[in-house]
Here is the input.
Amino acid sequence: ACVAPDPYLTNLAAEKTKGRAQVFTDLYENLDAEPTPGSFDLVLMAESCQYVNPERGWEQHGRFLKDKGYVLIADFFKIRPLDRDDLSKSGHDLDRFLSVADESGFKLLKKIDITRETAPSMDIYQGIITQYVFPIAEAIFEFISRRYPLIYRFMSMLFKEKILKLHARYSNQSAAIFTQYKGYFILLFQKK
Here is the structure.
């Protein structure tokens, strides 16, 4: 089965699996009657764990997995508290996440830290934002300010603070900052 909230992704999954997999366009937390409880050997969460409430996620894993079933996760987690307002808040706290897993009846079998191997992608990500996204947005605002000054002033009043916060946050996404606060892990759990 495949679960994703985006119809584009679920349509692509249905196409790629040629109908051999059940596909659900919904949030994982919302799945209720289907798929059949206790019918899966493995739940795979690749870059999706951070979007699922930990308590509800582990509850769902417990429902859908067979006895001794597995949960395999590849995602990033906070490894220390964020001490600056301009940092990305995404990712669950790793220690709390592991604690919730244990309390929910799952044993951690393997924890592989791949932060060093994945962190360079954050420099690429930040480079795209600072070299392309910010300049394009600035050019659009410059055009609006010259062509439609009243609209520009109105937009500035409404969105200035939000834009400054986004600019600060997305200017602080480098590999060095990422590795200071977050780690990327492959985690394998088994239902107890």
Observations:
- The first helix runs from residue 7 to 16.
- Residues 2-117+180-191 form a domain with the Rossmann fold fold (CATH 3.40.50.150).
